[in-house]
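Work Package 4 report. The design task specified in the project plan requires that, given a folded chain encoded as structure tokens, an amino acid be chosen for each position. We show below one input record used in the internal validation round.
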């Protein structure tokens, strides 16, 4: 796997790990223990690409790798021609019971294989280009006959927007206005209508008047706008959309009335997905076991609990990857060493290969895990950060530096996340000789 990674991607991966964050690409090379999910998830993506819709719930303790899992899945989806978006659920900025905020964040974080967030404008422009290409492919209009081409594109646009117009006339009208403004080089109007289509509030009245649309997006219209976006993605050549709703477990800490509204919104979204009202959409949520099983989470709303109910036996090896809920078992000590070996191969330094052996990888993994109260599942981020920034970089640069002689593991409070800090054996700096 590492032999297929370009030099630039290797640098991006290593730099991200050096900073202690999940890399934005190349995650297949770091996906330890996820092979068991690939066949079922690829089947789900195939179903979505065929016009279906899928809902999945991912469960795992803090540090089990939920964020890594969803970004790994998004990378796989984008390689297959999907668009993807990751939305962080939060009480103040993105409450789940206000779907207009979820849709807005979706658009802001929309990405494709070719375009980083936000890929919304490139998707809109690709949709317009695809309309023109489809007209020209029909052979009835010459490319240099601009008036006839424009009329033919408008006719095709109306046919394509038929379903959208019936369900969301405002979205369709704004698309017409966006195309007209783009063709006419009216950049201010095009920018305003793109913002309105993306759910942004406070769009200039002049831009909205140009397309004949009014007001701002609300909760109910947001679901219709999502259906419109799925149509645009399909018509611009994308296989579908993967939407990740991350940190849904934060619902447990909000006011009870807001929590109940959010849980009911989640139940409604699941029902819409199961009813195939969002063709081309795969929704993935993440949460802790306490969110799925505890009294302040899913179990608070019986209909939602019924939809997500999944039996898990004592041995994760026999979990069903096709089930609604997927359980991430978390890291073991051996998996942590395996991860270190993969990162060493990606780093690609002869000095590191020769002077940092598997025994040392295991020694450092045990030291980091011990400093975090023996919780292996919490260790991967800080283990990789220390491995790259403190060990690999020094070995690569200093010929006489030996990690066994010259390195002492230190975990500082200000470099740890809240979960890592809570797991740490001591509140102050920890110095463990290895």
């Amino acid at each position: 796997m590492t032999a297929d990674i370009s030099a630039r991607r290797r640098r991006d991966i290593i730099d991200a790990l050096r900073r202690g964050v999940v890399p934005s690409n190349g995650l297949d090379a770091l996906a330890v223990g996820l092979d068991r999910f690939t066949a079922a998830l690829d089947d789900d993506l195939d179903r979505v690409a065929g016009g279906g819709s899928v809902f999945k719930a991912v469960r795992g303790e803090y540090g089990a790798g939920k964020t890594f899992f969803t970004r790994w899945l998004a990378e796989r989806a984008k390689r297959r021609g999907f668009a993807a978006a990751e939305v962080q659920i939060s009480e103040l900025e993105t409450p789940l019971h206000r779907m207009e905020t979820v849709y807005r964040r979706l658009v802001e974080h929309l990405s494709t294989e070719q375009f980083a967030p936000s890929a919304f404008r490139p998707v809109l422009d690709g949709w317009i280009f695809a309309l023109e290409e489809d007209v020209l492919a029909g052979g009835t209009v010459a490319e240099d006959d601009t008036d006839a081409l424009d009329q033919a594109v408008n006719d095709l646009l109306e046919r394509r927007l038929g379903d959208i117009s019936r369900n969301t006339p405002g979205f369709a009208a704004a698309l017409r206005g966006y195309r007209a403004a783009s063709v006419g080089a009216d950049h201010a109007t095009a920018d305003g209508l793109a913002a309105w289509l993306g759910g942004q509030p406070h769009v200039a009245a002049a831009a909205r008047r140009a397309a004949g649309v009014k007001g701002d997006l609300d909760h109910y219209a947001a679901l219709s706008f999502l259906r419109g976006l799925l149509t645009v993605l399909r018509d611009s050549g994308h296989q579908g959309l993967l939407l990740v709703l991350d940190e849904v477990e934060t619902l447990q800490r909000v006011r009870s009335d807001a929590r109940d509204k959010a849980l009911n919104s989640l139940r409604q979204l699941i029902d819409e997905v199961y009813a195939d009202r969002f063709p081309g959409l795969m929704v993935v949520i993440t949460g802790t076991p306490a969110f799925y099983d505890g009294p302040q989470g899913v179990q608070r709303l019986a209909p939602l609990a019924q939809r997500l109910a999944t039996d898990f036996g004592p041995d994760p090896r026999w979990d069903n990857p096709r089930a609604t809920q997927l359980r991430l078992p978390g890291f073991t000590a051996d998996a942590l060493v395996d991860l270190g070996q993969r990162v060493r191969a990606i780093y690609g330094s002869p000095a590191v290969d020769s002077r940092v052996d598997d025994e040392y990888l295991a020694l450092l993994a045990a030291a980091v895990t011990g400093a975090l109260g023996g919780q292996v599942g919490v260790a991967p981020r800080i283990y990789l950060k220390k491995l790259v920034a403190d060990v690999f970089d020094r070995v690569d640069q200093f010929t006489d530096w030996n990690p066994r002689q010259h390195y002492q593991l230190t975990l500082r409070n200000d470099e740890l996340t809240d979960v890592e800090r809570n797991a740490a054996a001591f509140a102050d700096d920890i110095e463990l000789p290895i």
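The chain is about 55% helix and 10% strand. Validation will be extended to a larger panel in the next phase.
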